[in-house]
Each structure stands twice: as structure tokens, then as C-alpha cells.
Design brief:
By secondary structure, the protein is mainly α. About 40% of the residues are buried.
């Protein structure tokens, strides 16, 4: 499938609908931030359809997309995983949480003082933001998002983390300049794994992960 305004709108609507179902299926209040992740990512893709229709540029849709993709997700994912994690996993999750907080602060500051521009490149979108130490920020971002999922101690969340890691590697190899956009789209589709996670019984959710 080629990325386009129509594709982003259709995919975003479908993922957001699954996200709404995840929220409705959730049985513990502390699971709600993570259960709402597909809803957020679906809305994110819908926003990108507006970026397509604006032919890229620096407009409100581009800024809104970048705010969600960069500082918001860097903090939302590790906070959501920490809230949902069993007590024995929380100490190790403090590392990706700290990484997410620092990365989110740096990315938020960059968005506040520098313009972000979207460029249409064939069937993909590239976002340009002049970031200091981009390699370090990407590493911190992946540690916060993918790392927290892999360290969660939950098989559903580890599966989502593994899919996100594979997607990051593929998108970096195939679309280096469009990595952020393509990986976010991949992550949005993969987040439907949370539909199964959100329907767990309370006793199952509280049980420690098998070694």
C-alpha cells in the first residue's frame, strides 16, 4: 500500500476505532493510558492525512503531527507501561522512563524554538527539524518507547515492542529520510496488539510473567 491522504485517513480511522474498543475493554484504571495508545496513534495518522492535503509545509497539521510523534509519544509510552506493569517490573522501567522524560524535554524544546517542515517525497512524507545530537535523541526515544515495552514483563507488550523494533529497523533501512513518518504508521498498525492485551482478566493481568 502506498501512503497517501486517503491511506492515512482510512488506516487512522480503523486504528482509532480499535483504540476506542481497547479503552472500553480495559478493566483497570491504571491500564487506560496504554489502552488509549491505538486511539492516539490512529488520530495521529488522521492528522497526517491533513498534512498530505496541505502539501506538507509548516502548517498547524505538521506541527500537531510532530508534537505527538516526538515529545508526546516519547513520554506517553514509558509512563503507560509503568502504570500497567506489575510491581516486580517497575524498578527496571525507571530507566526507559527517565530516558523518555529527558528525550521528550529536548524534543519539546526543539519544536518550540525551531520550525518543523513536512516534505512530500513520492509516496512518503519526510519531516525536517533541526535537532542537536540527533543520534542521541533517536537512541533515547527508542529506549523510552521500544525499550519500555520489551522490559514490561507482559507477553502482549513484549510482542508489541518486538514488532516496533523490527519496524524501526525496516523503516530506517528503506526510508532513512522518512523514518519518523513510516515508523509511526507501522507502530500505529502494530498497536492493534493492545486489543488483546486490554481484554485480559484482572487476575491474569496481576499474575507475574512466566520466566
Amino acid at each position: 500500500m502506498c501512503w497517501s491522504a486517503t491511506a492515512d485517513l482510512a488506516a487512522g480511522t480503523a486504528v482509532a476505532a480499535i483504540g476506542a474498543a481497547c479503552v472500553l475493554r480495559t478493566r483497570r484504571a491504571r491500564d487506560l493510558p496504554l489502552a488509549a495508545l491505538p486511539l492516539l496513534l490512529g488520530a495521529h495518522q488522521i492528522i497526517e492525512s491533513a498534512v498530505w492535503r496541505a502539501d506538507g509545509g509548516t502548517g498547524p497539521a505538521t506541527v500537531a503531527w510532530a508534537v505527538i510523534a516526538l515529545p508526546l509519544l516519547a513520554l506517553w509510552v514509558p509512563v503507560g507501561v509503568l502504570c500497567a506493569a506489575p510491581p516486580d517490573a517497575r524498578r527496571r522501567l525507571l530507566v526507559p522512563l527517565a530516558s523518555g522524560a529527558a528525550t521528550s524535554a529536548a524534543l519539546g524544546y526543539a519544536l518550540a524554538v525551531r520550525p518543523v517542515t513536512a516534505h512530500i517525497r513520492g509516496h512518503t512524507l519526510g519531516y525536517v527539524l533541526d535537532l542537536p545530537h540527533p543520534g542521541l535523541l533517536v537512541a533515547g526515544y527508542l529506549l523510552a518507547t521500544v525499550g519500555s515495552l520489551l522490559l514490561s514483563g507482559d507477553r502482549w507488550l513484549r510482542c508489541l515492542g518486538a514488532l516496533a523494533a523490527i519496524g524501526a529497523a525496516v523503516c530506517a533501512a528503506l526510508w532513512r529520510l522518512e523514518f519518523i513518518s513510516t515508523w509511526c504508521a507501522f507502530a500505529a498498525v502494530c498497536s492493534v496488539v493492545l486489543f488483546g492485551w486490554s481484554g485480559r482478566r484482572p487476575a491474569e493481568a496481576a499474575a507475574p510473567a512466566a520466566p
